[in-house]
Design goal:
Strand content: 15-25%
Shape: globular
Length: 228
């Protein structure tokens, strides 16, 4: 879906459409209150070395996912890109066609001594996206907007799969969690204009409606780990 800023002549129509989509999004998720985080994972990693670790998340448009993790203490970098496909170094246009198999994703490099993989998962399922939407997220449709966790090692796989089972057993959401847990076989950074998109375009209509609320929810639900 083209997420560029609409021209002036179409602003009023875009606002109406966006508000309708936003309203649908607010009512299409799980049954839990939006003001509360989901439960923390019962299975989590412990920091065994001072080395940084990497995790890759997919949950709709990468702009919002990146913006959320950039505000988490212990995260050293969040890079928008593409994972899960069968084409090396794909372009945004190729991924947007849905033909390459990639998902818009975010590579998060973090310090395990400050934030665990499980905590990142809790944030991901609480404020970053709706894990019950299949091959879509809000107004964006297609497999490139699927919910997925790309693991780097067996420990991440175990934690991710265990957490999804935990959330499912607790009936955290009113609909099934459709998040895929898949081995990471390559991550390709997106074009430079996609990086830090919310920072550079804070007043864009798409950002205001779909992504700014995610950052605000992070600050409200996880004040102990939120950073400006």
């Amino acid at each position: 879906m083209n997420r560029s800023l609409p021209n002036v002549a179409a602003v009023l129509v875009a606002i109406i459409v966006a508000l309708v989509l936003f309203g649908a999004k607010l009512t299409s998720g799980g049954s839990r209150p939006l003001s509360e985080p989901v439960a923390a994972p019962l299975v989590d990693a412990t920091a065994s070395s001072p080395a940084d670790d990497t995790a890759v998340f997919a949950g709709g448009c990468f702009w919002g996912i990146e913006a959320v993790f950039e505000h988490v203490k212990g995260v050293k970098s969040a890079v928008s890109g593409y994972a899960g496909g069968n084409v090396a170094n794909p372009s945004y246009e190729q991924v947007s066609s849905g033909d390459t198999g990639h998902a818009e994703s975010v590579q998060v490099i973090y310090d395990p001594s400050q934030v665990s993989y499980g905590k990142l998962l809790q944030i991901f399922f609480s404020v970053a996206h709706d894990p019950t939407q299949l091959n879509r997220q809000g107004p964006d449709h297609g497999t490139q907007y699927r919910s997925a966790l790309f693991y780097n090692n067996a420990q991440q796989q175990q934690i991710a799969e265990s957490y999804i089972k935990q959330l499912t057993a607790a009936k955290t959401f009113s609909r099934p969690v459709v998040t895929q847990v898949t081995r990471l076989r390559g991550f390709y950074p997106a074009e430079s204009y996609h990086q830090d998109y919310l920072v550079h375009h804070p007043n864009q209509l798409y950002i205001v409606i779909n992504d700014q609320p995610k950052v605000a929810a992070l600050k409200k639900q996880f004040p102990d780990i939120y950073r400006n």
